[in-house]
Amino acid sequence: MTLAERVLNGDPRAIARAISLIENESPAGADVVRGIYPRTGRAYVIGVTGPPGAGKSTLVDRMTTELRGGGQTVGIVAVDPTSPFSGGALLGDRVRMGAHFGDEGVFIRSMATRGHLGGLARATSDVALVLDAAGKDIVMIETVGVGQDEVDIVRTADISIVVLVPGTGDEVQALKAGIMEIADIFVINKADRDGADRLAQSVAAMLALQAFQPSDWQPPILKTEATTGRGVSELIAAIAKFRAHSEAARATRRRARQEYRLRDLLSHRFLQLVEETLPAGELQGVIDGIAARQVDPYSAAATIEERVRGAGPARPPAPPPRGPAEPRAILDHVGIAVQDIDKALAFYRDALGLAVEAPEEVSSQRVRAHFIPVGESSIELLEGTASDSAITKYIEKRGPGIHHVTLRVDDIRAALARLKARGVRLVDEEPRQGAEGALVAFIHPSAAHGVLVELKQT
């Protein structure tokens, strides 16, 4: 079994290995994410953030106990600070969660920020994907102790819980922008301390300045004592209430998170490309020039960008323009007739790790189609839905296998007219409706050396 398959089966050692590869930014880690990604999106991600010393780790430990009592499995990602000098980290969060080490329904992973700002490590979102794919119902992410503007958690979690602690001595902090604006739930932890009520009133005053619509979620302010467990069951109930309230907007929120992750990944990849493209020492030379005021940062960045662009692979010369009598055709997809669609999907989706689009019923042809994008083309799995379907008859006569090759054209009627003028035998002299709302027409196999060729106009 591959590492991705072992992760999907919930193997703890495979999960740990996959997370290590992702943290180290290994190509094998990227392969694991590719293999598991189609099977993710089921876990509910809870983000827990707040200033240092607020008791986040102890609170997460108590929340885990409560969730396990309800029969839910939990994955925990606890982020700790990294030394800017040695690169090391004391993974103290794991020390505080020792009560769950023997619980097979809980997987705890501590990870260092490795210099990444925002309260999380660069790999945190991908680590959450691993725990999601491994079958955890809930994934909790505890950030490193954060300041006012370290709000990456809102771009990673389905719900953001901001944990505050009384006795900080500056209640004006509750009125400042940043971390106070991302909370879906406020938790005043260590509520047995003096000043807990005063802190709750300050947060309530801050919320009162906002204009909430009747349908908007208004963040509740809860009090907990993580060391004793008081108030934790009320917090779990508030999370469930928010989850039900925000279910309709969950897809939009997740799409925004994926956009942020893609942009972050592209930025990181471009910097890697710069370091790989420039000769050894040249980047440091540019930095020295900026420090000596010999060049400004904007001009230096523009020069580096041009260098990287120029170092890319040479583009092949553009083909000569085609005349109107020679319409352009490119490979759209290969159609494969299958007898058992579930077994076929198990191979392409589960074994190969390819993303499979939702099925489409093509009533005119009495088939069910699943498209699987592969690069710029696709594989189309076809299953007959009636005994007189062309796919059903094809399988009865020849068995499962390649049924047709589809070429996409700009003007299907012009292409058919050109073929007809050349004496090519056609199955369809006029286009008809096909899958995905396209116009299609077939060329007879006898004219294409035994291959059924489909023309398609989107």
Give a concise summary:
It is built from 14 helices and 15 strands. The chain starts with a helix and ends with a strand.
Q: Descriptors for this entry?
A:
14 helices, 19% strand, globular, 458 residues, 7-stranded parallel sheet, single chain, 8-stranded mixed sheet, alpha/beta
Spell out the blueprint of helices and strands.
Blueprint: H1 3-8, H2 12-23, H3 27-36, E1 44-49, H4 56-69, E2 74-80, H5 92-96, E3 106-112, H6 124-133, E4 138-142, E5 159-164, E6 185-188, H7 196-208, E7 221-223, H8 232-245, H9 250-277, H10 282-291, H11 297-310, E8 329-337, H12 341-351, E9 360-362, E10 367-374, E11 377-384, H13 390-398, E12 401-409, H14 412-421, E13 432-433, E14 439-443, E15 453-457
Parallel strand pairs: 1-4, 1-5, 2-3, 2-4, 5-6, 6-7, 8-11, 12-15
Antiparallel strand pairs: 8-12, 9-10, 10-11, 13-14, 14-15
Helix pairs in contact: 2-3, 2-6, 4-8
Can you characterise this structure?
- There is one protein chain.
- The protein has 458 residues and is an alpha/beta fold.
- 36% of the residues lie in helices and 19% in strands.
- It is built from 14 helices and 15 strands.
- The strands form two sheets. It has an eight-stranded mixed sheet. A seven-stranded parallel sheet has the order 3-2-4-1-5-6-7, with helices on both faces.
- Strand 13 and strand 14 form a beta hairpin.
- Helix 2 packs antiparallel against helix 6 and helix 4 packs across helix 8.
- The longest helix has 28 residues.
- It is globular and about 90 Å long.
- The two termini are 40 Å apart.
- About 3% of the residues have low confidence.
